[in-house]
Structure formats: C-alpha cells, structure tokens
Amino acid sequence: MDPDAVAKAFVEHYYTTFDANRAGLANLYQDGSMLTFEGQKIQGSQSIVAKLTSLPFQQCQHSITTVDCQPSGAGGMLVFVSGTLQLAGEQHALKFSQVIIFSLTSLFISIFRVFVSLLFLDVPFDANTAGKLLRVE
C-alpha cells in the first residue's frame, strides 16, 4: 500500500465531505480522536463534528496545494495538508494548513488522533513558518 496514495485519497475525501456536508465527517473520527482548533481541544466524534458544523460559515471550497505524508509507526501516518479556503461571498481565499495523524487498520482507515490548526493568515504561505505555528501533540 502506497502511503502517499492513501494520504491523498483520504485528504480528497475529507475536504470534499467537509465542503459538501461537514456532519458527514463523523464516521472518520472515533471517541479518542482529538481536534485542536485555535488552541481549543475538542475530543470525540460528536464534539468534533459539533465544532466543525458550528463554524461561522456555511459554504466553503478547499483547494489543496500540498499533501505530504510520513509513516509514524505501528501502521500510522502523519499527513501535512496546506491550501486555500474560499468562503462564499468573500473576494480573497484564506490560507490554511492541517496536520492529521491517523492509523491504518486492514482496509479501513480509522483516525486515531487528529490535531488541526487552521491558519487564517493574510500573509503568503511559507511551510517553514507554518510548521512553527502548528500545534502537534
């Protein structure tokens, strides 16, 4: 199994679902999953989806620029995603980055822990700077 292909397929599925129906992300999280959003730690599938669906925008479109992955032991992967987020009615897209840590179990992808840092920056994206700003536990 090619880790890059798995990571890219997961990222495509995640952001397509996020853009169309955030509540549909619930089956990607487990009770032990954690999302860190702007310093706030949210644990469990229901709580994470509640946070994502309560964001102050209803429509958005992600455009993925980078998907980098690295094996993280015990069949897991660390995935770094960056790109832009276009909100409905806004002229300029926002830059974002996300770090995802997940484990692979047989043919099923189950997220073990997810740490997210959305960086809404009005400055050009720089991977080195973004890496310093990301909070990974």
Automatic annotation (TrEMBL):
PROSITE patterns: NTF2_DOMAIN. Residues 6-121 form the NTF2 domain. The keyword DNA-binding does not apply. It is found in: Cytoplasm; Nucleus; Nucleus envelope. Keywords: Cytoplasm, Membrane, Nucleus, Protein transport, Transmembrane, Transmembrane helix, Transport. Interacts with RAN1. The keyword Signal does not apply. Gene3D superfamilies: 3.10.450.50. GO terms for biological process: mRNA transport; protein import into nucleus. The chain crosses the membrane at residues 99-121. GO terms for cellular component: cytoplasm; nuclear envelope. It holds the Pfam family NTF2. This is NTF2-related export protein. Facilitates protein transport into the nucleus. Interacts with various nucleoporins and with Ran-GDP. Could be part of a multicomponent system of cytosolic factors that assemble at the pore complex during nuclear import.
